[in-house]
């Protein structure tokens, strides 16, 4: 199996992790193992824990990381269970955490996985975890018009969300929508022709929205970031690569809150809320792909890297 995945912002991420040869690191979105390979080869007595909910990713990464088998542990899980999985391995704190969010090139380019709108006969699947009983087709066919509108508007940020949701509900009354081609036609009819010339494929935003909803991507991120920061040892760093404005906003705001959690009114002379800083935000502005990377991989154009370091005041 050829699990193709371009590791976005690879040198920048490795530099920001401040890898120690005896450190413990967690790659919560293992993918093809590109980032993990660079971490593992810098370890001697350290350890890398690679987590992914996609069986194909685990298989491919296992092959790639075989030279470092003595220092790598692979775990099938959603990264939301990271703290629990790490503790099950007898580890209390880690020196670094990496999350490379979004969908992999392999997932996009494998038609039977159903992530892409480019293959008309592809199934509407989009599951990152193949054990998930729900697929994208279930969302398209079973969600109410109101809920479809909400996710396409919020997660796809599509101004024609109301039109798209209305037409999906109308068409699914005739037959179940199970293939990309069916959904593509509905979306294309929902957006004015003159506006389909720019902005990429008209279905792009709707597919993104359905994928995010199905895999609970924003919920998992928002509900667990604080715990990941707590998992870091002193001076440990968490590096997060996002591809969506909502993801980036969650990361930015959570990092800022952990740096300055004080809820006291601004005019209070001293803090009385008792909330202590857990560290500092390393990236006031996100790190973006270089021009060279953008030329090599157009899918990296929306990538942003943010970094937080656990501080001495966190103990």
Describe the structure.
The chain has helices at residues 10-17, 34-40, 55-64, 82-88, 105-109, 136-142, 145-154, 161-172, 180-190, 204-214, 217-231, 245-259, 291-296, and strands at residues 24-27, 47-52, 72-76, 94-100, 232-242, 279-281, 304-310. With 315 residues, it is of the alpha/beta class. The chain folds into two domains: 10-101 and 220-314, 3-Layer(aba) Sandwich (Rossmann fold), CATH 3.40.50.150; 113-214, Putative methyltransferase TM0872, insert domain (DNA polymerase, domain 1), CATH 1.10.150. Strands 3-2-1-4-5-7-6 form a seven-stranded mixed beta sheet, sandwiched between helices. Helix 2 (34-40) links the parallel strand 1 and strand 2. The longest helix is centred in the last third of the chain and has 15 residues, at 217-231. It is globular, with a radius of gyration of 21 Å.
Tell me briefly what this model is.
By secondary structure, the chain is an alpha/beta fold.
Distance between the first and last residues' Cα = 45 Å
Sequence of strands across the biggest β-sheet? 3-2-1-4-5-7-6
Biggest β-sheet strands, sense, barrel: 7 strands, mixed
| CATH fold description of the largest domain | Rossmann fold
CATH architecture of the largest domain: 3-Layer(aba) Sandwich
Question: Helical segment tally?
Answer: 13
Percent of residues in β-strands: 5-15%
Query: How many domains, as an integer?
Result: 2
CATH class label of the largest domain: Alpha Beta
Q: Which radius of gyration do the C-alpha atoms yield?
A: 21 Å
Q: Give the helix level as a range of percent.
A: 25-40%
Shape: globular
Q: What's the CATH H-level superfamily name of the largest domain?
A: Vaccinia Virus protein VP39
Helix-strand pattern, N to C? HEHEHEHEHHHHHHHEHEHE
Low-confidence runs: none
Mean pLDDT: 93
Count of distinct strands: 7
Q: Based on helices, strands and strand pairing, what is the structural class? A: alpha/beta
Oligomer: single chain
């Amino acid at each position: 199996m050829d699990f193709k995945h371009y590791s976005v912002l690879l040198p920048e991420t490795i530099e920001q992790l401040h890898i120690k040869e005896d450190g413990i690191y967690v790659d919560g979105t293992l993918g093809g193992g590109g980032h993990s390979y660079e971490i593992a080869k810098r370890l001697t007595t350290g350890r890398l824990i690679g987590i992914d909910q996609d069986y194909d990713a685990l298989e491919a990464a296992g092959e790639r990381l075989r030279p470092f088998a003595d220092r790598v542990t692979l775990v099938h899980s959603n990264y939301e269970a990271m703290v629990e999985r790490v503790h099950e391995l007898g580890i209390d704190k880690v020196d670094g955490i990496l999350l490379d969010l979004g969908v992999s090139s392999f997932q996009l380019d494998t038609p039977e996985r159903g992530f892409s709108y480019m293959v008309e006969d592809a199934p509407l699947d989009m599951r990152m975890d193949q054990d998930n009983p729900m697929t994208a087709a279930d969302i398209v066919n079973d969600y109410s018009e109101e809920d479809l509108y909400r996710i396409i508007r919020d997660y796809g940020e599509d101004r024609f969300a109301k039109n798209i949701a209305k037409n999906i509900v109308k068409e699914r009354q005739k037959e179940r929508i199970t293939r990309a081609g069916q959904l593509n036609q509905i979306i294309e009819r929902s957006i004015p022709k003159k506006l389909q010339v720019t902005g990429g494929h008209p279905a792009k935003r709707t597919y993104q929205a359905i994928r995010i909803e199905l895999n609970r991507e924003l919920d998992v991120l928002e509900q667990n970031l604080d715990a990941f920061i707590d998992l870091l040892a002193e001076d440990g760093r968490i590096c997060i690569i996002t591809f969506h404005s909502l993801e980036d906003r969650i990361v930015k705001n959570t990092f800022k809150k952990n740096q300055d959690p004080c809820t006291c009114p601004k005019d209070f002379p001293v803090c009385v809320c008792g909330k202590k800083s857990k560290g500092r935000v390393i990236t006031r502005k996100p790190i973006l792909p270089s021009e060279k990377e953008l030329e090599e991989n157009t899918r990296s154009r929306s990538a942003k890297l943010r970094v937080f370091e656990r501080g001495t005041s966190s103990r």
